[in-house]
Specification:
2 copies of one chain form a homodimer.
Chain A: H1 9-23, H2 35-41, H3 46-58, E1 62-65, E2 69-72, H4 83-91, H5 97-120, H6 123-138, H7 142-160, H8 163-177, H9 182-186, H10 190-205, H11 209-233
Antiparallel strand pairs in A: 1-2
The first copy, chain A, binds a DNA duplex through helix 3.
Chain lengths: 239, 239
DNA sequence: GCTCGAAATTTATCATACAAATGCACCGTG
DNA sequence: CACGGTGCATTTGTATGATAAATTTCGAGC
């Protein structure tokens, strides 16, 4: 699942430098130390360091040029939707600001996905959504229910047949997953969220895009309202 | 602007292998030749090859393990929103299927962005949108108008203050730009597209999210209808 | 037949050397 | 003094060869 492999050495270097850049320890315009000394300071060979730098360069975080060195690029060059960049931001963000941006993306994607699914779903894709719904119905404990809920949303996404949307959703969802424990997100909705899901399912079955969109919209609204209610009370975040 | 640097040698290797994978010449599950022979076959050192492989690995296209080799990963692991992956797909896609998916993403992003901009725009962000609109008014030829149009949409995106949305839009837009010549996309709309833009601008000024969303929606609808009309007639694509 | 371990293969990492690019200072010239 | 070209120094880019680590495979021993 995770993008940069933790096993390998250069993976460690990627994360270490990537975090320092994303967090702001290294700021745009800053020039990193020469490869030779940077390699030594991180206790790896120049070869391994360079492989890491190339990856960070591919993510748009840095830019290397002969004679001048490797410079941290301006934030608008960063691949903000890269799974690593996102996770590094999530790993240390005190402000709720960023979470709200992630939530906003989710609010945009899901209704659109429901509509697209209603428009283009195949028979098997529909039955997958239905299967997920059945699992939600049958769920006994919050963990089961959370897993079924996730598979429901995933089935809807798959039914869109648009891999760009699927990829976007999975990236955003996994980033949000770093903040909210799944069960915490869904536990309270247990009771009255099921009808919402049924509405989405039925709209997709009947190929009614606008109905599906609105149903998904109100589902999310309720979910968020419920979440806010809970946050005033007790635990809510991780990390 | 472009992601992988063409100047360097390993950049060439990245593109070469990346394209072959994305296009389907190399299929998921396939094992690439050993690094040593692959390096020779591409006429680069193993060092340069490995740097390229690491980048492709970061994009989710491949996965390397000792003793087993480098394997092409399943498509659902790919970073579909990566600028390179997207551009490689655009570089050789005979079907209109993929373009429609890109257009769908655009249709999703832009109205949502207009709404978000109306909700949160600062004074200076508003004036930037206004400035772009003025440039559209003042445009004399299609090139000027196309540039102003782009800066209008960019200003709206910036006004959302959500860098995730900005990044998503820029990626999708640049991919679409590989298919449609800018002037071709906008030339026909010259006359009657301006009022649409004005509506969006005014809604953002008055902080009316839903009005802004709908205005942007109908703008895109008209734009696409106009485009389809033109495609039946004359030129439309590039590659 | 099963388990455990040795061997073989491939990637991972390292060290070193050289090539290429490029900013910068220096020098010559008008 | 201003200006432009030219060589030098520095840093990344590439190549080569060697060793370490991981992991599959196969065989030996029980």
């Amino acid at each position: 699942m995770k993008a940069t492999d933790s096993r390998n050495l250069h993976g460690h270097v990627i994360r270490e430098l990537g975090k320092r850049i994303v967090v702001g320890d290294l700021r745009p315009g800053d020039i990193l130390p020469r490869e030779e000394v940077l390699a030594e300071s991180m206790d790896v060979s120049r070869t391994a360091l360079r492989e890491a730098l190339k990856v960070l360069s591919a993510k748009g975080l840095i830019e290397s040029r002969p004679r001048v060195g490797t410079r941290v690029r301006a934030t608008h060059f960063w691949n903000q939707l890269d799974a690593d960049v996102l996770s590094w931001r999530c790993a240390s963000m005190p402000t709720d600001d960023f979470i709200e941006k992630l939530v906003e993306m989710r609010e945009i994607i899901e209704p659109a996905a429901a509509a697209a699914a209603a428009r283009r779903r195949t028979a098997t894709q529909l039955s997958n959504v239905e299967l997920a719904y059945r699992k939600m119905e049958a769920a006994r404990d919050p963990e089961e229910w959370a897993a079924a809920d996730l598979s429901f949303h995933d089935a809807v996404l798959q039914a869109t047949g648009n891999e760009l949307m699927i990829s976007l959703f999975s990236v955003v969802e996994s980033a949000l997953g770093m903040f909210f424990v799944l069960s915490a997100k869904t536990a309270g909705n247990f009771s009255y969220s099921l009808p919402h899901h049924l509405k989405v399912l039925e709209a997709i079955r009947r190929k009614q895009p606008e109905v599906a969109r609105k149903a998904m919209q109100s589902m999310i609204e309720d979910s968020l309202a419920n979440l806010h209610k809970k946050r005033k009370g007790g635990s809510k975040k991780a990390s």
